[in-house]
């Protein structure tokens, strides 16, 4: 068997007396698209922050391709090939769309951020930047200041920046939050295309998105994973229906069937 892209073992996190993550164990295979779902306050963002280095685990282990990363600084984890987006937009609004993506590309190639002004001649950087912009369908808006993009395009740019760093494990926190139905459909297609071959971990409230995108789903309730399975099995899981999805499960659209 291959080494899991991410391997979480008996992970706990408490804030003072509040025990928020309560023994999470989960393996995510290389190339898998995995979604974490669960009610508000279940601990999804906390789990994301633990994996990407925002929080120190209280106990337990988090391994990236077999290497322990629990408690490492976020930039070190990023350097090891794990990149995450945030719910709150992370883009440089005064820079153009192209410059924003270029920053990520430069970073992945080992250049400092201060180098970006002189990169016009760096062919490999230009090519990689254009490739990413094309994969998320933003090439025709590359010269615009990021602040002028419509909201859905800003979220897409955020995803492009996350991918530009060259990581092969990508974590997206509610990538379609605030988007209309048609914008969401487009974003899902772009995310699938842009993360092809990479390992993807998402937190998402839109069940249409989750069931369309994920190979497997984990359901987090009160800091514990109550089920990890393929979308169809999650939809039919009695425990999951009781704790979270309820009758909504029957109404979920998706090609998971
Ligand atoms: N830094 C912190 N200090 C204290 N409590 C925290 C901290 N971060 C999160 N919590 C608590 O942990 C619990 C889980 O929060 P978290 O944001 O991880 O849930 P979530 O599943 O992401 O919720 P939502 O779906 O609403 O985003 C909440 O009760 C929250 O108040």
Keywords:
single chain, 257 residues, Rossmann fold, six-stranded mixed β-sheet, four-stranded antiparallel β-sheet, binds adenosine-5'-triphosphate
Give an overview in words:
With 257 residues, this protein is α/β, with parallel strands linked by helices. It has a domain at 1-80 and 214-257: Rossmann fold. It is 36% helix and 23% strand. It contains ten helices and ten strands. A six-stranded mixed beta sheet has the order 6-7-8-3-9-10, sandwiched between helices. Helix 6 links the parallel strand 7 and strand 8 (199-203). Helix 3 packs across helix 4, helix 3 packs parallel to helix 5 (151-164) and helix 5 (151-164) runs parallel beside helix 6. The radius of gyration is 18 Å and the shape is globular. The model has no long low-confidence stretch (mean pLDDT 88). Adenosine-5'-triphosphate (ATP) is lined by residues 15, 18, 20, 38, 40-46.
Low-confidence stretches: none
Strand order in the largest sheet? 6-7-8-3-9-10
Name given to the CATH homologous superfamily of the domain at 1-80 and 214-257: P-loop containing nucleotide triphosphate hydrolases
Largest sheet: 6 strands, mixed
Overall CATH class of the domain at 1-80 and 214-257 = Alpha Beta
Distance between the termini: 27 Å
Radius of gyration: 18 Å
Bound molecules: adenosine-5'-triphosphate
Dominant shape: globular
The tally of strands reads 10
Structural class estimated from helices and strands: alpha/beta
Arithmetic mean of pLDDT: 88
Instruction: Please report the number of helical segments.
Output: 10
- State the helical fraction: 25-40%
Q: Please identify, by name, the CATH architecture of the domain at 1-80 and 214-257.
A: 3-Layer(aba) Sandwich
Write down the secondary-structure element order.
Answer: EEEHEEHEHHHEHEHEEHHH
Tell me what portion of residues adopts beta-strand conformation. Answer: 15-25%
Q: Which fold does the CATH topology of the domain at 1-80 and 214-257 refer to?
A: Rossmann fold
Enzyme class: hydrolase
GO molecular function: ATP binding; ATP hydrolysis activity
Protein name: Arabinose import ATP-binding protein AraG
EC number: 3.6.3.17
């Amino acid at each position: 068997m291959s080494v899991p892209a991410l391997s979480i073992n008996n992970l706990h996190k408490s804030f003072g007396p509040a025990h928020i993550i309560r023994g999470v164990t989960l393996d995510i295979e290389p190339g898998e698209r995995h979604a974490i779902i669960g009610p508000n306050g279940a601990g999804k963002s906390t789990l994301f922050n633990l994996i990407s280095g925002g929080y120190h685990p209280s106990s337990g282990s988090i391994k990236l391709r077999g290497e322990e990363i629990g408690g490492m600084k976020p930039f070190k984890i990023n350097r090891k090939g794990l990149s995450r987006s945030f719910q709150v937009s992370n883009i440089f609004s005064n820079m153009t769309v192209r410059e924003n993506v270029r920053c990520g590309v430069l970073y992945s190639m080992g250049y400092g951020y201060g180098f970006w002004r002189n990169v016009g001649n760096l062919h490999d950087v230009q090519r990689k930047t254009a490739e990413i912009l094309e994969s998320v369908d933003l090439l025709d808006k590359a010269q615009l200041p990021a602040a002028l993009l419509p909201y859905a395009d800003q979220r897409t740019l955020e995803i492009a920046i996350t991918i530009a760093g060259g990581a092969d494990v990508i974590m997206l926190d509610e990538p379609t939050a605030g988007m209309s139905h048609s914008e969401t459909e487009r974003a899902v297609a772009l995310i699938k295309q842009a993360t092809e071959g990479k390992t993807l971990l998402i937190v998402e409230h839109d069940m249409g998105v989750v069931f369309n995108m994920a190979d497997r789903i984990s359901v987090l309730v009160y800091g514990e994973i109550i089920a990890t399975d393929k979308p169809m099995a999650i939809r039919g899981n009695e425990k999951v229906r009781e704790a979270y999805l309820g009758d909504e499960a029957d109404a979920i659209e998706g090609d998971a069937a």
